[in-house]
Amino acid sequence: MPALETAPSADPLSAPEYFRLGLARLSWRECWRLTRSWRVIIAGFRKLTDQGAYTPGGFAFPRPLAAIQVDRAALPDEVLSSLERLERACRVLGFAEPVFHLNQSRLLPSKTAGCFLREPTGETVASLLYVERAGVPAAQQGQGNFFSRLQDGRLLLTSDQPARLDTAFVARHLPGRAPAEVYTVHQRRLDAERARGNPPVPVRSFDELAELHWQIEQSAMTLHLRRGLFVRMTPEEVTAEERRVEREGRALATAETQADGSGDISVKILRRLVAAERTASVKGNLVLLAISLVLFVAVASLLMHWKASLLAVVGVVLLVHEAGHFVAMRRFDYRNVRLFFIPFFGAATAGVGTTAVGWQRVLVSLAGPVPGIALGFGLVWLGRFSGNATCHTAGYVFVLLNAANLLPLLPLDGGQVLNETVFSRHPLLRAAFRVLAGAGLIAVNQRLGGGGLLTYLGVVTALSAAGVWRQGRVLRELRAKGVALTETVPGPGGGEDVQPEALPLLVAELRKNRQANVPAGRLVNEAVAIIRLFRSRPPSVAASVGLVGLYVTVCALTVVGILTVLQLSAGDVWNLRARTQTRREQAAHAREQRRQAEAEREETEAANKPANANANPSVDVPQGSPAKEKPED
Q: Which residue intervals of 303-412 are DSSP H helices?
């Protein structure tokens, strides 16, 4: 067999194109193949809402074989131990002349190593691969694939790996099979193609092998680009990923000086922040809103027995309220802004304000109830002048629900305003306010009635005071030590970003005076909350006074409007629970009357059935009674 002529090693591409994975474009079958469990529900939800579109890092367009070819000695030991097992099995089958290659990504902590061997005729090439991503080997034993170039230009592939993704080749997958079995199946398929007049094209030189390698990579790349699984990264995205890799390296370098092994947790914190602050897609927002709305309607109609008219009005009120928050967040450059409904509770708008200052966060809180209250008063006036009862009732609902959100209780909007302006200045104040807010929610539930939901929300709010106190204490300790969690971002965008060198110190402070086996996920969640708390500095004293004055003015105008425009007295509002209970009792009484009427009707129908069954048109004539004779013609 002629030896492969090795071409001189080419220099790596100076400015390669980079791509990222768009996991939202996976098919449903691929979601199942990648999970093989109930987690396919989570994968499907992320696919629908486009939450799986971001994965950290990116990879360059495949480079020519000559650019990534290496000697056997250049491969790490764990790679060689995986490839040599398959190489020995292929050598038994007659394959020889190994050509090794190694490709490492600049933006991903991963590497792909492999070995090409060819059989004596050159009709089949064995491709042995070792893939490692994020430091975890994806295939401990390597991957064995057999390729053949067909005369019609297609590539014939037989692999010992499961078919996890759609392939651009004429492929068959035999997971778990030995190389000899896989090769035998490949030869049978090759003989079948030869019999149909489509023989293989032999690979006889290094240039032809490099051409085969390029055809394999380009075929897969073209398929995945066309279906959207691979997304071309913009120069800005590449710069951001390079900065992320650099920051993770700085965090790991600082963690080496710590004795608690906080490097991996620091990297997870950075990736959690990047994932949470990415830009939400319009399609993902719309799908998330639609799914949550369907669940909200189903729960309200089937479990809470709401009428369609009430459900429609409340849904519109919630949507308008949250749309105000959504617009304000987008105006103040919040990241990953999403609007969704929450069954039993209402709706919410979530976003991350990396650059939002204190007064902007207060305006975001007021942007929900204020437009809703103004619109409600307008609908009430319009309903009175036009005589439209539906418009008048909708105005009432708009005003009352949005006014309830102005109550100075967390997590309502009024509580958020007071928390940002007054209680966010000290951990003790933040914790005490949560306890008071929880007690207030329980008191409101007892007075006005809430079906227990407000009580549950109050208990959760009060219990969160312990975590808020601990986060504030850790933040004060770090500030006392002169540790800054953020740093100024260079460039025209400006702003602040997380300082990687501070993350190991933050993790060490979180672990202080706690059990040694604290889960890493809990540490990551608390660290992210502390970083956001560090970013959310309260407004100045003068600005806080002005914002509190604005909040009090809005509340006062709302109360005046309720007493005048809605013509409700304080007693009417305070006795809302009694009136609500009366309406519930009346509705229950009406349902009971309808049930009794239905039961009586069924009893009457059951009593009449035997009489009707005995009524037979062919009645026997009793003995002794005169029978009518048939009249004669």
A: 308-331, 358-366, 369-386, 389-404
Q: In 12-82, which ranges are E strands? A: 18-21, 59-60, 69-70
Quick one: 346 exposed, middle or buried, by C-beta within 10 A (0-12, 13-18, 19+)? middle
How much is the pTM?
Answer: 0.74
Judge whether 140 lies within some domain: yes
Q: Which residue, 118, 91, 84, 103, is CA-closest to 12? A: 103
> In the predicted model, what is the mean pLDDT of residues 171-182?
89
- Roughly what angle, to the nearest 10 degrees, separates helices 413-421 and 427-448? 160
156 and 186 in contact (C-beta within 8 Å)?
yes
529 pLDDT above the threshold of 60: yes
Strand pairing class (170-173; 155-159)? parallel
What residue ranges in 169-306 does DSSP mark as E strands?
A: 170-173, 200-201, 230-232
Pairing assessment for the beta strands 335-342 and 125-133 based on DSSP bridges: unpaired
Distance CA 34, CA 252 (A): 30
Distances (CA, A) of 398 to 189, 370, 454, 571, 599: 70, 10, 20, 20, 40
Name the 3-class secondary structure at 127: strand
Place of tokens 């809180």: 365
- CB 336 within 8 Å of CB 276: yes
Question: Which residues, in sequence order, are CB contacts of 327 under 8 Å at separation 6+?
Answer: 367
pLDDT at 265: 84
User: With the C-alpha atoms ordered 521, 522, 523, 526, is the resulting torsion angle positive or negative?
Assistant: positive
Q: Is residue 91 part of a domain?
A: yes
Map tokens 């009136």 to a residue: 579
What single DSSP character describes residue 426?
A: S
Token pair of 472 as six digits: 């504030």
Number of domains the chain contains = 1
Q: Is 337 exposed, middle or buried (0-12, 13-18, 19+ CB in 10 A)?
A: buried
The pLDDT assigned to 190 comes to 93
State residue 55 phi and psi, 5-degree precision.
-130, 135
**CA R_g for the chain:** 36
- Measured between alpha carbons, how far is 499 from 243 in angstroms, rounded to an integer? 12
Q: Is residue 27 a part of any domain in this protein? A: no
Summarised one tens digit per residue, pLDDT across range 565-588 is 777 655 555 555 565 566 666 666
Which structural domain range is residue 153 located in? 62-232
Greatest pairwise CA separation for the chain in angstroms: 128
Output the average pLDDT for the chain: 81
Beta strands in 122-175, from DSSP E residues, in sequence order: 125-133, 136-137, 143-150, 155-159, 170-173
Lowest mean pLDDT among 191-195, 288-292, 578-582, 603-607: 578-582
Asked if residues 212 and 149 have their Cβ atoms less than 8 Å apart, the reply is yes
- Domain annotation covers residue 56: no
Q: Nearest to residue 550, comparing CAs of 351, 428, 433, 413?
A: 413
Amino acid symbol at 148:
S
Instruction: Give the integer Cα–Cα distance in Å for 317 and 327.
Output: 16
Angstrom CA distances, 161 to 63, 165, 193, stand at 24, 11, 23
For residue 339, the cross-strand partners are 349
